[in-house]
Amino acid sequence: MLFLFAIMIGVLYGAAVYLLLRRNIFKLVLGLIFLGHATNMLLFVAGGLTNGKPAFIRGLQGETVGMSDPLPQALILTAIVIGLGVTAFALTLVYRFYKVTKTVDFDQLSENE
Amino acid sequence: MILVLPIILPLLIMVVLIFTRRWLFFQQAFSILASVVLMWVGFLILMDVQQNGIKAVQPGSWDAPFGITLVADLFSAIMMVTASFVAVVVMIFSPGFIDKERQTAGYYPLVFGLLMGVNGAFFTGDLFNLYVWYEVMLTSSFVLIALGGSAEQLRGSIKYVTINFVASIFFVSAIGILYGQAGTLNMADLADKMRSWDEHTYVNSALMLFFIAFSVKSALVPFFFWLPASYHTPPVAITALFAGTLTKVGVYTMFRFYSLFVVYDQMFWTLFILTLAGLTMFIGVLMAASQFDIRKILSFHIISQVGYMIMGLGIFTVSGIAGAIYFTIHNMLSKTNTFLAGGLVYQRSGSYDLKYLGGLYKAKPLLALLFFIPAMSLAGIPPLPGFFGKFFLIKGGFEAQQYFITAVAILTGLFTLFSMVKIWNEAYWKKEPEDVKSRGKVHPATIMATSLLALAVILLGIFVGPVMELSMQAGEQIVNPQMYISAVLGK
Predict the structure, then answer these.
(1) pTM, whole model, 2 decimals?
(2) Mean pLDDT lowest for which of A105-109, B90-94, B238-242, B421-425?
(3) What's chain B's average pLDDT?
(4) B135 inside 8 A of chain A by CB
């Protein structure tokens, strides 16, 4: 289980870095999205994987040993929302850039026109 | 509960400003008033902390390691007062400088969104909460830097957004790894646990991830290239606000983290930070010397000056930290002031390019004076505060027997003087060129704001004694993290 997660996070990070290094600005945004997801998974795994146990049961008193930790999940939720906001902004930005310059090529980012 | 105000107030102000977006005059007046109130709140917190020691509150009334804690020590209070003073000045400056479209497009609400994030980052005692405040601050700055949407701004903001997003990713990963190890997010609790740990395999890797994240945000070598590529694109009032707040929050966080979390391998971290500080100072100032746009010269200077602050951190004695704190206050004021003076030049001559500038000393001596004061302060000419800042840092360096970094700091000072003199010679002293872009009028509000800031710079130089004493106390709190830990955990 842990091994599978580790492989998946690695692949996501790899894909993200590959996309970030492309010249197409739209792919840059895709790379940012992948990077965000990879990190969310990393948070999830680093917080400890617990198989088949709920994070929270209403009315349960005392015994909590072996239950999964709800905190990493709360952190990931927050991180997903923040990631969503930043991604939306980045997409708008790239779209505006395309409208203004009529190109999605990274080389247009250099200042020598 | 006064500690909640620095966060709640900007939020309320922002809401009011969003709903009154069309009433331009109300927005301008209310923003000035509101930022003055914020600064006053900062003063109250500073007084309180100075008299009663470090102050911690639990807004959710969950006890310390579980709930989110807000903590104010002297350093964070000092930083908040200075940052909100910068905001006051920029708020007075903006109505006379930024065009009406930008002002009604949400400039004022965004500034207070930024301030909310900045204050939150200063006062939070929780790792993940710190990340959230960073995002609040950065998201506001993303919109501010792109506001108006000229091609140049869009270019700058794509770079700015990308690099800051990647840095935030480093930050969150480090939080995740540390949480998996320690099972706590409370900074004081984490620091306390670290001091009694046998198992510290992951600590250094998490700290290195943190360090990369913050050195991107405060523009240290080798992660500084985004700053000069984006800071010159928005109107200079926005750049001035960024210069006075954003990178300094990164520096502040680095101080806090170093004090709390660097428990193992101190030798390595000292050497590492001092090396980066020296490189940052020197490379920043060399690159500044090769530029011809006022805003770019000043942007590279931000980098060089962050190096000085980090040098104080690397020395990590009370006098070194105190010097760095004094230097940070001075830098937030003087740097903002030079940017604003650059804005005055732009209003008068229609360009930031030194090629098209000249003769301003003769034509507008007041403009020249308003640049001269902060520029000489940055260059370190007594009796201006830049001199004392560098003096205390260098003194701290000698006392800690870090001779090499001290030598680099002195050398960098010379180059700083060189590039300030370069702007002075080109923009103010040389004859006005034939192909001058335009001859605009300088708005009185902008002159007033810049003079106010220049006055503050001079006062900081005159009252160096009391301010330095305060910085010494703040430095003591940073060097002895046990004070912070026991204030939060109550033991």
Answers:
(1) 0.94
(2) A105-109
(3) 92
(4) yes
Q: Is the pLDDT of residue A112 over 60?
A: no
Domain residues for the domain of B464 are: 2-489
Query: If we measure between CA atoms, which residue out of B297, B426, B424, B447 comes closest to residue B367?
Result: B447
CA angle (B463 as vertex; B50, B48 as ends), nearest 5? 15
Best CATH choice for the domain A2-50+69-103 from the list 1.10.287.3510, 1.10.3720.10, 1.10.8.60, 3.40.449.10: 1.10.287.3510
Work out the number of other CB atoms within 10 angstroms of the CB of residue B233.
Answer: 23
State in Å, rounded, how far the first CA of chain A is from the last one.
52
* Domain extent listing, chain A: 2-50+69-103
State the smallest CA–CA distance between residue B210 and chain A in angstroms: 14
Distance from CA of A87 to the nearest CA of B (A): 10
The answer to whether residue A88 neighbours chain B at the CB level (below 8 Å) is no
Chain A neighbors of B166, CB-CB under 8 A = 20, 32, 35
Instruction: Give CA angle at B93 (B88, B98), nearest 5°.
Output: 125
Nearest to B158 among A46, A47, A93 (CB): A93
- The interface predicted TM-score (ipTM) is 0.91
A59–chain B nearest CA distance, Å? 20
Q: What is the pLDDT of residues B451-469, one digit of tens each?
A: 999 999 999 999 999 999 9
Reported as a single tens digit per residue, the pLDDT across B434-450 is 777 777 888 999 999 99
Q: How far is CA B274 from CA B108, B309, B320, B366, in A?
A: 39, 10, 12, 40
Do A31 and A56 form a contact (C-beta atoms < 8 A)?
no
Tens-digit pLDDT profile for residues A12-55: 999 999 999 988 889 999 999 999 999 999 998 988 777 777 66
User: Using 50, 70 and 90 to split pLDDT, how confident is the model at A113?
Assistant: very low
Contact B391, B327 (CB under 8 A): no
How many interchain CB pairs under 8 A, A with B? 85
Return the CA Rg of chain B: 21
Helices A70-101 & A25-46, crossing angle to 10 degrees? 180
Residue A113 has which token pair? Answer: 């026109």
